[in-house]
Write a structure and sequence with these properties.
Helix content: 25-40%
Structural class: alpha+beta
Radius of gyration: 21 Å
CATH topology of the largest domain: Uridine Diphospho-n-acetylenolpyruvylglucosamine Reductase, domain 3
Strand order of the largest sheet: 6-7-12-10-11
Oligomer: single chain
Shape: globular
Number of strands: 20
Strand content: 25-35%
Distance between the termini: 30 Å
CATH class of the largest domain: Alpha Beta
Amino acid sequence: MNQSQKTGIQKEVSLTHLNTLGLHSVAPLFMNITSETQLIELNEKGFFSEKRPFVLGGGSNILLSSRLSVPVLKMSIPGMEMIDDDGKNVQIQVGAGENWHELVSFAVQNGLGGIENLALIPGTVGAAPIQNIGAYGVELEGLFLSLKAYDLKSSSFRTFSKSECQFGYRDSIFKRELKGQMVVTSVTLRLSKKDHIIHDSYSALRYYLTQNKIQNPGIEEIYQAVINIRQSKLPNPSDIGNAGSFFKNPVIKQKQYNELKDNWEGIPGYPNGPGWVKVPAAWLIEKAGWKGLRSGNVGTYKTQALVIVNHGGATGQEVLEFSKKIQKSVSEQFGIDLIPEVNIVH
Protein backbone atom coordinates (compact mmCIF):
# COMPACT_ATOMS: atom_id res chain seq x y z
CA MET A 1 0.00 0.00 0.00
CA ASN A 2 1.51 3.35 -1.04
CA GLN A 3 1.51 6.53 1.03
CA SER A 4 -1.45 8.04 -0.81
CA GLN A 5 -3.65 5.04 0.00
CA LYS A 6 -2.62 5.14 3.66
CA THR A 7 -3.67 8.77 4.05
CA GLY A 8 -6.88 8.40 2.04
CA ILE A 9 -5.65 10.53 -0.84
CA GLN A 10 -7.33 9.81 -4.19
CA LYS A 11 -5.89 10.60 -7.61
CA GLU A 12 -7.56 12.20 -10.63
CA VAL A 13 -10.91 13.00 -8.99
CA SER A 14 -13.71 14.78 -10.83
CA LEU A 15 -15.07 17.87 -9.08
CA THR A 16 -18.02 18.33 -11.43
CA HIS A 17 -20.56 17.40 -8.75
CA LEU A 18 -18.70 19.30 -6.04
CA ASN A 19 -19.18 22.80 -7.49
CA THR A 20 -22.59 24.40 -7.91
CA LEU A 21 -21.70 25.87 -11.31
CA GLY A 22 -21.47 22.29 -12.50
CA LEU A 23 -18.18 22.90 -14.28
CA HIS A 24 -16.10 19.94 -15.35
CA SER A 25 -12.90 20.01 -13.35
CA VAL A 26 -10.35 17.44 -12.23
CA ALA A 27 -8.19 17.51 -9.09
CA PRO A 28 -4.80 15.75 -9.40
CA LEU A 29 -5.11 14.70 -5.74
CA PHE A 30 -8.17 14.73 -3.50
CA MET A 31 -8.89 14.00 0.15
CA ASN A 32 -12.08 14.17 2.20
CA ILE A 33 -11.34 15.76 5.60
CA THR A 34 -13.64 14.55 8.38
CA SER A 35 -11.42 15.19 11.43
CA GLU A 36 -8.78 17.57 12.70
CA THR A 37 -6.44 14.60 13.12
CA GLN A 38 -6.24 14.19 9.35
CA LEU A 39 -4.94 17.74 8.99
CA ILE A 40 -2.24 17.13 11.56
CA GLU A 41 -1.15 13.90 9.87
CA LEU A 42 -1.03 15.50 6.43
CA ASN A 43 0.98 18.45 7.68
CA GLU A 44 3.45 16.22 9.50
CA LYS A 45 4.11 14.47 6.21
CA GLY A 46 4.87 17.83 4.56
CA PHE A 47 1.75 17.68 2.39
CA PHE A 48 0.79 21.34 2.83
CA SER A 49 4.27 22.82 2.39
CA GLU A 50 4.96 20.69 -0.68
CA LYS A 51 1.54 20.64 -2.39
CA ARG A 52 -0.24 23.80 -1.20
CA PRO A 53 -3.76 22.34 -1.59
CA PHE A 54 -7.02 24.17 -2.13
CA VAL A 55 -9.63 23.73 0.62
CA LEU A 56 -13.10 23.08 -0.80
CA GLY A 57 -16.27 23.69 1.19
CA GLY A 58 -19.70 23.43 -0.41
CA GLY A 59 -18.40 24.46 -3.83
CA SER A 60 -20.98 27.24 -4.05
CA ASN A 61 -18.75 30.26 -4.42
CA ILE A 62 -16.00 29.05 -6.74
CA LEU A 63 -15.06 29.05 -10.40
CA LEU A 64 -12.87 26.07 -11.26
CA SER A 65 -10.58 25.62 -14.23
CA SER A 66 -10.86 22.37 -16.19
CA ARG A 67 -7.83 20.90 -14.48
CA LEU A 68 -6.47 22.19 -11.21
CA SER A 69 -2.76 22.48 -10.59
CA VAL A 70 -3.12 21.85 -6.84
CA PRO A 71 -4.62 19.08 -4.68
CA VAL A 72 -8.08 19.54 -3.16
CA LEU A 73 -9.14 18.96 0.44
CA LYS A 74 -12.91 18.62 0.81
CA MET A 75 -13.81 20.04 4.23
CA SER A 76 -16.37 17.68 5.79
CA ILE A 77 -15.77 17.97 9.55
CA PRO A 78 -19.18 17.46 11.22
CA GLY A 79 -20.58 18.41 14.60
CA MET A 80 -22.89 20.83 16.39
CA GLU A 81 -22.65 21.53 20.11
CA MET A 82 -24.17 24.03 22.54
CA ILE A 83 -21.22 25.22 24.62
CA ASP A 84 -22.93 27.95 26.66
CA ASP A 85 -26.46 28.98 27.61
CA ASP A 86 -27.12 31.96 29.86
CA GLY A 87 -30.88 31.87 29.43
CA LYS A 88 -30.98 34.74 26.98
CA ASN A 89 -28.32 33.68 24.46
CA VAL A 90 -26.59 30.45 23.50
CA GLN A 91 -23.19 29.79 22.04
CA ILE A 92 -23.15 27.06 19.42
CA GLN A 93 -19.97 25.50 18.03
CA VAL A 94 -20.39 23.99 14.57
CA GLY A 95 -18.08 21.82 12.47
CA ALA A 96 -16.73 23.47 9.33
CA GLY A 97 -18.20 20.76 7.11
CA GLU A 98 -21.80 21.24 8.21
CA ASN A 99 -24.27 22.62 5.65
CA TRP A 100 -24.98 26.30 6.29
CA HIS A 101 -28.69 26.30 5.49
CA GLU A 102 -29.26 23.22 7.63
CA LEU A 103 -27.69 25.11 10.53
CA VAL A 104 -30.05 28.04 9.94
CA SER A 105 -33.03 25.67 9.81
CA PHE A 106 -31.92 23.98 13.04
CA ALA A 107 -31.64 27.32 14.79
CA VAL A 108 -35.07 28.55 13.73
CA GLN A 109 -36.74 25.23 14.56
CA ASN A 110 -35.26 25.47 18.05
CA GLY A 111 -36.27 29.08 18.60
CA LEU A 112 -32.78 30.52 18.21
CA GLY A 113 -32.60 33.92 16.55
CA GLY A 114 -30.09 36.08 14.72
CA ILE A 115 -29.36 33.81 11.78
CA GLU A 116 -32.75 33.59 10.04
CA ASN A 117 -31.98 36.27 7.41
CA LEU A 118 -29.13 34.08 6.16
CA ALA A 119 -31.38 31.19 5.13
CA LEU A 120 -30.79 29.31 1.88
CA ILE A 121 -27.25 30.61 1.38
CA PRO A 122 -25.43 27.64 -0.16
CA GLY A 123 -22.15 26.37 1.21
CA THR A 124 -20.59 25.10 4.41
CA VAL A 125 -20.21 26.63 7.85
CA GLY A 126 -16.42 26.79 7.54
CA ALA A 127 -16.60 28.94 4.41
CA ALA A 128 -19.05 31.42 5.96
CA PRO A 129 -16.54 33.54 7.95
CA ILE A 130 -13.98 33.52 5.15
CA GLN A 131 -16.52 35.25 2.94
CA ASN A 132 -18.32 37.05 5.80
CA ILE A 133 -21.57 35.98 4.20
CA GLY A 134 -24.54 38.29 4.39
CA ALA A 135 -28.06 38.78 3.07
CA TYR A 136 -31.20 40.81 3.67
CA GLY A 137 -29.65 43.23 6.13
CA VAL A 138 -27.61 40.77 8.20
CA GLU A 139 -23.95 39.76 8.00
CA LEU A 140 -22.26 36.84 9.70
CA GLU A 141 -20.01 39.07 11.79
CA GLY A 142 -23.10 40.23 13.72
CA LEU A 143 -23.51 36.80 15.35
CA PHE A 144 -19.94 35.56 15.11
CA LEU A 145 -17.92 34.83 18.25
CA SER A 146 -14.84 32.90 17.14
CA LEU A 147 -13.47 30.20 14.89
CA LYS A 148 -10.88 27.48 15.21
CA ALA A 149 -8.40 26.99 12.41
CA TYR A 150 -5.32 24.90 11.68
CA ASP A 151 -2.28 27.07 11.01
CA LEU A 152 -0.33 25.36 8.25
CA LYS A 153 2.85 27.32 8.96
CA SER A 154 3.07 26.69 12.69
CA SER A 155 1.41 23.25 12.51
CA SER A 156 -0.89 24.23 15.36
CA PHE A 157 -4.50 25.19 16.00
CA ARG A 158 -5.47 28.82 16.54
CA THR A 159 -8.62 30.50 17.77
CA PHE A 160 -9.62 33.73 16.04
CA SER A 161 -11.88 36.30 17.70
CA LYS A 162 -14.18 38.54 15.68
CA SER A 163 -11.68 41.41 15.67
CA GLU A 164 -8.85 39.11 14.60
CA CYS A 165 -10.88 37.99 11.57
CA GLN A 166 -10.89 41.61 10.32
CA PHE A 167 -14.28 41.28 8.69
CA GLY A 168 -15.25 43.56 5.84
CA TYR A 169 -17.91 43.48 3.15
CA ARG A 170 -17.70 39.88 1.83
CA ASP A 171 -14.18 39.91 3.14
CA SER A 172 -11.93 38.75 5.98
CA ILE A 173 -8.27 38.33 6.82
CA PHE A 174 -8.51 34.80 5.40
CA LYS A 175 -8.99 36.24 1.92
CA ARG A 176 -6.04 38.60 2.32
CA GLU A 177 -3.00 38.25 4.61
CA LEU A 178 -3.81 34.70 5.71
CA LYS A 179 -5.08 33.37 2.40
CA GLY A 180 -4.09 29.74 1.98
CA GLN A 181 -2.49 29.60 5.43
CA MET A 182 -5.44 28.56 7.58
CA VAL A 183 -7.93 25.69 7.44
CA VAL A 184 -11.10 26.50 9.39
CA THR A 185 -12.30 23.49 11.40
CA SER A 186 -15.15 24.95 13.50
CA VAL A 187 -17.11 28.17 14.00
CA THR A 188 -18.77 29.46 17.19
CA LEU A 189 -21.82 31.72 16.97
CA ARG A 190 -23.99 33.52 19.53
CA LEU A 191 -27.73 33.17 18.94
CA SER A 192 -30.61 34.61 20.96
CA LYS A 193 -33.08 32.45 22.91
CA LYS A 194 -35.56 35.24 23.62
CA ASP A 195 -36.11 38.96 22.94
CA HIS A 196 -34.97 38.37 19.37
CA ILE A 197 -33.86 41.38 17.36
CA ILE A 198 -35.77 41.20 14.09
CA HIS A 199 -34.02 42.59 10.99
CA ASP A 200 -36.80 43.40 8.53
CA SER A 201 -35.79 46.78 7.09
CA TYR A 202 -34.10 45.45 3.93
CA SER A 203 -36.22 46.72 1.03
CA ALA A 204 -37.00 43.38 -0.66
CA LEU A 205 -37.84 41.81 2.68
CA ARG A 206 -39.98 44.73 3.78
CA TYR A 207 -41.87 44.62 0.45
CA TYR A 208 -42.53 40.89 0.82
CA LEU A 209 -43.83 41.27 4.37
CA THR A 210 -46.08 44.16 3.37
CA GLN A 211 -47.46 42.33 0.33
CA ASN A 212 -48.23 39.29 2.46
CA LYS A 213 -49.69 41.40 5.26
CA ILE A 214 -47.24 40.08 7.82
CA GLN A 215 -46.99 42.44 10.78
CA ASN A 216 -44.58 42.06 13.70
CA PRO A 217 -42.80 39.06 12.16
CA GLY A 218 -40.90 36.59 14.30
CA ILE A 219 -37.82 34.64 13.35
CA GLU A 220 -39.93 31.93 11.65
CA GLU A 221 -41.69 34.48 9.43
CA ILE A 222 -38.40 36.14 8.46
CA TYR A 223 -36.84 32.74 7.74
CA GLN A 224 -39.69 31.69 5.44
CA ALA A 225 -39.86 35.09 3.77
CA VAL A 226 -36.16 34.98 2.90
CA ILE A 227 -36.54 31.46 1.49
CA ASN A 228 -39.52 32.48 -0.65
CA ILE A 229 -37.77 35.60 -1.95
CA ARG A 230 -34.60 33.68 -2.79
CA GLN A 231 -36.48 30.90 -4.55
CA SER A 232 -38.41 33.42 -6.63
CA LYS A 233 -35.27 35.22 -7.78
CA LEU A 234 -32.40 32.75 -7.74
CA PRO A 235 -32.00 29.48 -9.65
CA ASN A 236 -31.55 26.19 -7.84
CA PRO A 237 -28.08 24.79 -8.71
CA SER A 238 -29.66 21.35 -9.10
CA ASP A 239 -31.75 22.78 -11.95
CA ILE A 240 -29.16 25.03 -13.58
CA GLY A 241 -25.51 25.48 -12.62
CA ASN A 242 -24.68 28.74 -10.85
CA ALA A 243 -22.55 30.15 -8.04
CA GLY A 244 -25.12 32.61 -6.73
CA SER A 245 -24.13 36.27 -6.88
CA PHE A 246 -21.12 36.40 -9.15
CA PHE A 247 -20.05 39.96 -8.32
CA LYS A 248 -19.89 42.03 -5.14
CA ASN A 249 -22.11 45.09 -4.85
CA PRO A 250 -19.67 47.93 -5.54
CA VAL A 251 -19.12 50.69 -2.99
CA ILE A 252 -18.42 54.10 -4.54
CA LYS A 253 -17.85 57.62 -3.31
CA GLN A 254 -20.90 59.79 -2.65
CA LYS A 255 -19.70 62.33 -5.24
CA GLN A 256 -19.57 59.69 -7.98
CA TYR A 257 -23.00 58.43 -6.99
CA ASN A 258 -24.46 61.93 -7.17
CA GLU A 259 -23.00 62.34 -10.66
CA LEU A 260 -24.49 59.02 -11.76
CA LYS A 261 -27.90 60.05 -10.41
CA ASP A 262 -27.86 63.03 -12.76
CA ASN A 263 -27.48 60.70 -15.75
CA TRP A 264 -29.26 57.56 -14.59
CA GLU A 265 -32.69 58.20 -13.12
CA GLY A 266 -33.63 55.76 -10.40
CA ILE A 267 -30.16 54.36 -9.76
CA PRO A 268 -30.41 52.76 -6.31
CA GLY A 269 -27.84 53.42 -3.61
CA TYR A 270 -27.47 52.63 0.07
CA PRO A 271 -25.28 54.49 2.59
CA ASN A 272 -22.16 52.51 3.42
CA GLY A 273 -20.31 54.66 5.89
CA PRO A 274 -19.52 58.38 5.74
CA GLY A 275 -19.05 59.49 2.15
CA TRP A 276 -19.66 56.07 0.58
CA VAL A 277 -22.61 54.46 -1.20
CA LYS A 278 -23.27 50.81 -2.07
CA VAL A 279 -24.82 50.32 -5.51
CA PRO A 280 -26.56 47.03 -6.44
CA ALA A 281 -24.45 45.21 -9.02
CA ALA A 282 -27.57 43.54 -10.41
CA TRP A 283 -29.04 46.94 -11.35
CA LEU A 284 -25.84 47.98 -13.12
CA ILE A 285 -25.60 44.71 -15.05
CA GLU A 286 -29.26 44.82 -16.04
CA LYS A 287 -29.05 48.45 -17.22
CA ALA A 288 -25.96 47.53 -19.24
CA GLY A 289 -28.14 45.06 -21.13
CA TRP A 290 -26.94 41.74 -19.74
CA LYS A 291 -29.98 40.39 -17.89
CA GLY A 292 -31.02 37.04 -19.36
CA LEU A 293 -28.39 37.27 -22.08
CA ARG A 294 -26.81 34.03 -23.29
CA SER A 295 -23.55 33.41 -25.10
CA GLY A 296 -22.94 29.77 -25.98
CA ASN A 297 -23.18 27.68 -22.82
CA VAL A 298 -23.03 30.66 -20.46
CA GLY A 299 -25.45 33.43 -19.59
CA THR A 300 -27.02 35.55 -16.89
CA TYR A 301 -30.16 34.28 -15.19
CA LYS A 302 -33.46 35.44 -16.64
CA THR A 303 -34.73 36.99 -13.40
CA GLN A 304 -31.44 37.99 -11.73
CA ALA A 305 -28.66 39.63 -13.73
CA LEU A 306 -26.15 39.15 -10.90
CA VAL A 307 -26.20 35.37 -11.35
CA ILE A 308 -24.12 33.80 -14.12
CA VAL A 309 -25.41 30.37 -15.12
CA ASN A 310 -24.03 27.31 -16.86
CA HIS A 311 -26.64 26.24 -19.42
CA GLY A 312 -24.78 22.96 -19.79
CA GLY A 313 -21.28 21.99 -20.80
CA ALA A 314 -19.64 25.32 -19.98
CA THR A 315 -15.99 25.44 -18.97
CA GLY A 316 -14.49 27.61 -16.29
CA GLN A 317 -12.70 29.61 -18.97
CA GLU A 318 -15.99 30.32 -20.78
CA VAL A 319 -17.60 31.58 -17.57
CA LEU A 320 -14.55 33.72 -16.78
CA GLU A 321 -14.51 35.31 -20.25
CA PHE A 322 -18.25 36.00 -20.07
CA SER A 323 -17.82 37.67 -16.67
CA LYS A 324 -15.02 39.87 -18.00
CA LYS A 325 -17.28 41.10 -20.79
CA ILE A 326 -19.84 42.13 -18.18
CA GLN A 327 -17.16 43.93 -16.18
CA LYS A 328 -15.95 45.80 -19.27
CA SER A 329 -19.49 46.83 -20.21
CA VAL A 330 -20.38 48.13 -16.74
CA SER A 331 -17.06 49.95 -16.45
CA GLU A 332 -17.56 51.70 -19.79
CA GLN A 333 -21.13 52.77 -19.02
CA PHE A 334 -20.92 53.65 -15.33
CA GLY A 335 -17.24 54.04 -14.53
CA ILE A 336 -17.63 51.34 -11.86
CA ASP A 337 -15.39 48.30 -11.60
CA LEU A 338 -17.20 45.12 -10.62
CA ILE A 339 -15.21 42.72 -8.42
CA PRO A 340 -16.04 38.99 -8.53
CA GLU A 341 -17.51 37.58 -5.34
CA VAL A 342 -16.66 34.04 -6.44
CA ASN A 343 -13.21 32.60 -5.85
CA ILE A 344 -11.38 31.72 -9.06
CA VAL A 345 -9.33 28.54 -8.65
CA HIS A 346 -6.77 27.34 -11.19
